[in-house]
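[job 4471] stage=fold_predict status=RUNNING
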Amino acid sequence: MLEHMILPFYRYTDFHGRSRRKEFWSFAVLNVLVMAILVSLAFSTGFSHRALIQHAEFAGSLGIATIAFFAILGMYSLATLVPSVAVNVRRLHDRDMSGWWCLAFVVLGMVPVIGWVASIFYLVMMVLPGTPGANRFGEDPRDPAGSQMFV
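[job 4471] inference complete, writing structure tokens
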């Protein structure tokens, strides 16, 4: 499973082809774990949202731990932005959908009521299995040799 967690970092600019559910969800689990570790470290160093609001209201200094937390969080978010989009596009390709649907779901997610429905629909799309055999985006990542067997 660890190899599937870091595979999107190796294929970070690959918007072609297909990705299995295992790759998509392993990468999602990795992101949740890293965020949980970052947040737990932030709270263990004395970060609190009340202190952040108090200091922001009075334009006081936020403290080195808070600044470091947001810097690390920002760097990790930027480092995973392109691999996240790429693995989402490849996962949509596995469902035989265009990668532009990823942008459509982001835009729909910004609409107040429709956003909830679009997010649930997108989650369902990511859970469903990919199309068996080859499709217009490439070979089946579960069994790349199987689709060539009958040709």
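[job 4471] summary: Helices lie at 2-10, 21-44, 49-57, 64-94, 100-109, 112-127.
[job 4471] exit 0
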